[in-house]
From TrEMBL:
<dbReference type="Pfam" id="PF00296">
    <property type="entry name" value="Bac_luciferase"/>
</dbReference>
<dbReference type="InterPro" id="IPR011251">
    <property type="entry name" value="Luciferase-like_dom"/>
</dbReference>
<protein>
    <submittedName>
        <fullName>LLM class flavin-dependent oxidoreductase</fullName>
    </submittedName>
</protein>
<feature type="domain" description="Luciferase-like">
    <location>
        <begin position="12"/>
        <end position="260"/>
    </location>
</feature>
<dbReference type="InterPro" id="IPR036661">
    <property type="entry name" value="Luciferase-like_sf"/>
</dbReference>
<dbReference type="InterPro" id="IPR050766">
    <property type="entry name" value="Bact_Lucif_Oxidored"/>
</dbReference>
Length: 342
């Protein structure tokens, strides 16, 4: 059980040309994402994480954004939650990740996964990727992941040209640029106990979101805590050479001023939600929105947060950089210390 938490934000990067939105264009979404990361570092947050969705008015191409955030910040972790590996060329992924990590000085924490329900039908096919005979799209994502992990680890596999344009080091060649240690900073976004165990087998950190497939009918935070336990139990059976990290995501809004009351007073959900997702039943975690003292009491009972070392706060990015920086600061100063997270 972890008390002190690394606390960061997770932004979906929504943009919409609507007069009530502070984020009306793709340019707004990207530039404000950079500004929010800078603001998060200034208020003492530990991480800036971004959701990746293709064919959507959201953040779709993560590495230019991650590199820009890395160039503008100096301390915070910079990551994704998550990159859909069905769409990813494993070697191009490794090249881009290595370059962005070097720009950031080794601060990338990349969440990857099979992905989520899509905007389009079988969108990965438009990117040129098709499951092999007998494969599912989940199998495709895992195959791409395993190849990417080998490349990130510096596997030398490519036969050098005997007459290269530039001199080569001896032996087989690897993907360049290579960033030492990045392989150990990859997280798998797991939606079930089984995929959590698989991520432990592969030597990836665990990223668990605000939803998972319902496997017992129990409250979300209890199922998520059991998922974390399954992951750590599997990890203990392997010798990966480092201690894993576990993150969970939550929507937490301390109500401390009139803006908070206008946006979130009365919106906190006291119960989890159950719904159909990708052909199965899923459980969605509640939203926490209340005055700080009440939030402290509510969050103290969240078993999954207690087990995780990293907490990602989902932010309503369309409300703008200033407001979201205020939300982060409120959690860090009005809630986290009372729970021992700071």
């Amino acid at each position: 059980m972890s008390t002190r938490k690394n606390i960061g934000f997770l932004s979906f990067g929504h943009w919409t040309p609507h007069p009530t939105s502070e984020v009306r264009t793709a340019s707004d979404a990207l530039l404000q994402s950079i500004d929010l990361a800078v603001a998060a570092e200034e208020v003492g947050a530990d991480g800036a994480y971004f959701r990746v969705h293709h064919f959507a008015r959201q953040l779709g191409s993560p590495f230019p954004l991650l590199a820009a955030v890395g160039a503008r910040t100096s301390r915070i972790e910079i990551g994704t939650g998550v990159i859909d590996m069905r769409y990813a060329n494993p070697l191009a992924f490794a090249e881009d990740a290595g370059a962005a990590d070097l720009i950031a000085g080794g601060r990338l924490r990349l969440g990857i996964s099979r992905g989520s329900p899509e905007q389009v039908i079988d969108g990965w096919r438009h990117f040129g990727f098709v499951p092999a005979d007998g494969e599912t799209d989940a199998d495709l994502a895992r195959r791409h992941t395993e190849a990417a992990l080998r490349a990130l680890a510096g596997e030398q596999f490519a036969e050098p040209n005997p007459r290269p344009m530039f001199p080569n080091p001896p032996g087989l060649l690897r993907i360049e640029p290579y960033s030492q240690g990045l392989r150990q900073r990859i997280w798998w976004g797991a939606g079930s106990d089984a995929t959590a165990r698989w991520s432990a087998e592969q030597g990836m950190n665990l990223m668990s979101s605000t939803l998972k497939f319902d496997e017992s009918g129990e409250p979300f935070h209890v199922q998520q805590r059991k998922q974390i336990e399954a992951y750590r139990g599997e990890w203990a059976r392997h010798d990966h050479g480092f201690e894993p990290r576990v993150s969970v995501s939550r929507s937490i809004f301390p109500i401390v001023d009139d803006r908070d009351r206008r946006y979130f007073l009365g919106t906190g959900e006291r119960a989890d939600q159950f719904a159909q997702l990708d052909g199965g039943r899923a459980v969605f975690g509640r939203t926490y929105a209340d005055e700080p003292d009440a939030l402290v009491d509510q969050l103290r009972g969240d078993e999954a947060i207690a087990e995780a070392d990293t907490l990602l706060l989902t932010v309503p990015n369309q409300l703008g950089v200033d407001y979201n920086a205020h939300v982060l600061e409120s959690v860090l100063t009005d809630v986290a210390p009372a729970l021992g997270w700071r």
